[in-house]
Design goal:
Chitinase A, domain 3, alpha+beta, six-stranded antiparallel beta sheet, metal-binding
Length: 499
């Protein structure tokens, strides 16, 4: 048979062999080698075979059994590893991805997906595979390893495949299942950790910041936001991410952790992408850091309000307050308490982000409140490098400690009483008809010190006075004359008359 380059294939005990060989082959194992001596009466007798075997010849055979099967055999399945957790097994019409080594019964390798470094991807139970493999894959879990032995009549039969598999060959497949899904599958969500307090859940159109680990079903990691040390930031429900993630991110709470399992038709499809193979089921373990909607405004929650709360903060007031600033997940960003001093601003003057200007309105001394500021009213998409992440929702816990009432809008200085009719002459102390900046500054300082006038609180004295002087110095020569000098209400009247 070696000279012919093909095995001898025959049924045993059915008269297809000489009597001695029929008896000699019984009880042999695959890969067993026997030396068989057959007397003439159990071989070709007194006649022999013309030109080949003489009469009354004793025959010697050196036999190596390569393969054996019975027409009543079925597919044999031997599982040698099965994961502890197996939430789903292969069913008819499922699509699977698996690796395999294919050998004959004697151990000879005829094919391997490992050598091609690519899984075998196919539907199960609908005729895309040889019948024995269609049967052998049913009931497998992802991660399971099994040996599937298939008789030839459930494989490639009498003819073989015309290439690597001879006729009447039994096949042995060592299979590890990496992935499975059904074309009818939707996403699957496993809630791993949901905060006790969840005032709001995400909806289509919200902007989310979340961390994730992305793996295949067999646990192979293909991407992680943690490794980049930066959240993934996106709108949900608007097509900015794959369809399965768009759906899986709806209805989450800030701080929630969930697992989202996405079939390939809702992921990266048959083609895959980058490290993601074609037809792969994706598993995302996500942690929602925060979310907001572009239509959100500042949210204010009053935690404490004094019994006497009649003077409320307004634009132009000078405020001193303490705060703790954090992200929605509780990460502390900054605190005046740790600095040991208050934060001082003029409300509505642009010294803080717009959301904080809004959050400090109508507050009384001693009041404590929580102010939640969406990023478009905070530090926006860019954030503050090294301090505030981009697109972050900010949480400020505030206590107002001091309030100095500001001046009416547009005024940097007001009189507390009647204005002198000879105001210019009082400022022009040397009576030369011209007021210099030094004279003007000394006069304003004297009025403030005596309580006759009041400057806008919270601003630098010299800057305010210089600004007031510049407004009066209409020709810009560094001197103010009587003709140039006008009070603000006089300017307003003149403008009205001109209109």
């Amino acid at each position: 048979s070696y000279d012919r380059g093909s095995t001898f294939n025959v049924f045993v005990g059915k008269g297809q062999l000489i009597a001695g060989m029929d008896k000699a082959l019984v009880g042999m194992c695959v890969n067993e080698r026997r030396f068989v001596k057959i007397p003439p009466r159990l071989a070709y007798g007194s006649e022999g075979v013309s030109g080949v075997i003489p009469p009354n010849a004793v025959l010697h055979f050196d036999v190596l059994l390569i393969d054996l099967w019975n027409s009543e055999d079925e597919v044999q399945v031997q599982t040698y590893f099965k994961p502890e957790k197996c939430s789903r097994t292969v069913q008819v019409s499922d699509f699977v991805r698996y690796h395999y080594n294919g050998t004959f019964l004697d151990g000879t390798l005829f094919d391997s997906s490992h050598n091609r470094m690519r899984t075998y991807d196919t539907y199960v139970g609908i005729g895309w595979l040889i019948p024995g493999m269609d049967q052998g894959l049913l009931g497998m879990c992802v991660g399971e390893k099994r040996i599937i032995t298939i008789p030839p009549f459930l494989a490639y039969g009498e003819e073989g495949d015309g290439k690597d598999i001879p006729g009447q060959a039994s096949l042995v497949f060592d299979v590890v299942l990496l992935d499975l899904h059904n074309p009818k599958d939707g996403i699957a969500i496993e809630n791993q950790q949901v905060p006790e307090s969840c005032e709001r859940r995400s909806q289509a159109g919200d902007f989310l910041r979340y961390h994730y680990n992305g793996t295949l079903l067999d646990g192979t990691l293909f991407d992680s936001s943690y490794s980049r040390n930066r959240t993934y930031d996106t709108y949900v429900g608007k097509g900015y991410v794959i369809a399965g993630m768009d759906e899986g991110l709806l209805g989450v709470c800030t701080g929630e952790k969930r697992r989202i399992i996405i079939p390939p038709h809702l992921g990266y499809g048959e083609e895959g992408r980058g490290k993601i193979p074609g037809s792969a089921v994706l598993v995302f373990d996500i942690h929602v850091v925060d979310f907001h909607n572009p239509s959100d405004s500042v949210s204010i929650t009053v935690n404490y309000k004094p019994a006497n709360c009649t003077v409320l903060s307004k634009k132009g007031d000078y405020l001193k307050y303490h705060y703790n600033a954090s992200l929605l997940d509780g990460t502390l960003l900054d605190s005046t308490h740790s600095l040991g001093k208050t934060y001082n601003i003029v409300l509505g003057s642009g010294q803080v982000v717009v959301g904080m200007d809004m959050g400090l309105q109508d507050m009384c001394v001693g009041e404590r409140r929580r102010v939640v500021i969406p990023p478009h009213l905070g530090y926006g998409e860019d954030g503050v490098e090294g301090e505030v992440p981009g697109s972050a929702v900010l949480v400020f816990d505030i206590e107002l400690l001091e309030l100095v009432s500001g001046l009416p809008e547009g005024y940097m200085f007001v009189w507390n009483g009647e204005v002198s009719p000879n105001l210019f002459e009082e400022i022009d102390q040397n009576h030369d008809g011209e007021v210099l900046l030094e004279e003007f500054s000394e006069y304003i300082q004297a009025q403030v010190d005596s309580g006759k006038g009041k400057l806008a609180p919270g601003f630098d004295f010299e800057k305010i006075v210089k600004n007031m002087f510049t407004n009066q110095d209409r020709d810009g020569n560094g001197k103010v004359t009587a003709e140039e000098f006008k009070l603000k209400d006089q300017e307003a009247k003149e403008e009205h008359d001109e209109l």
